[in-house]
Amino acid sequence: GFGQAVIGPPGSGKTTYCGAVQRLLATELGRPVAVINLDPANDSLPYSCAVDISELVTLSDVMDTLKLGPNGSLIYCMEYLEANVDWLHAKLKALSGHYLLFDCPGQVELYSHHGAVRNVL
Question: Domains, the chain, ranges and CATH?
Answer without folding.
Answer: 3-120 (3.40.50.300)
